[in-house]
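I'd like us to work through together how a protein chain folds, taking it slowly. To get us started, please write out a protein record for me. Go ahead whenever you are ready, and we will take it from there:
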Amino acid sequence: DWGTSTAIETNRDAMSIILSRLPMSLKINVIAVVIAVPLGFAFGILAALKKNTWIDNTLSTLTMVFISVPSFVIISFLMIWLAYGAKVLPSQWPESTAPASTQAAAYVIPVMSLCFGTVASFTRYTRAELCDIMASDFLLLARTKGLTRPQTVIRHALRNSMVPLVPMIIGEFIGILSGSMILENLYGIPGIGDLFIKAINSKDYNVVMVDMAVYTMISLFATLLVDLSYGIVDPRIRMGAR
């Protein structure tokens, strides 16, 4: 029993308030991960295959820029450019009674803001891991046995580089979820991040406590999934247990 809200929704159960807003936060974050992870892998593979060329240098530079810029700075820029300037997208999260097209368009700015940093992060790690494996001895042995460069990359290099990268997907989801707190508040998204900030400002401590508990449980569950995924991705870990 987490008690009832004292300011956000007076006398309403604090847990029910969180549960009513949790799906919105999860939906936006899942969409961002589903879009960002394949793009990050693709750009990382491209940078590794074009190592030390202008393509690699351009991607590496953009990667460092977007890793350094926080998501709330990106969403502020996108709101000024696409919402207030070009006026092609909503400037704030629409009401539930708004048309379906408006509600769908409202996802563009927050999802893009969350995607940039994740794409840059996966691009950097994928490039580094793939470049390291492509310079390894077993890949040179595969080339000497007659395999072409594309065959060695697809059959051996990519599979081995995915071992440390796949568990990162779950960890990146947690990073996005925690980073969307300010973003939800700026764009008016009715999620648990926006609720957390409003509860702190209004000193609704019951809602603050249950919100923190939900974030903690999601993080602990994700950490467990990361640990389990190592054995699924890398068979050597399962063999070591025997």
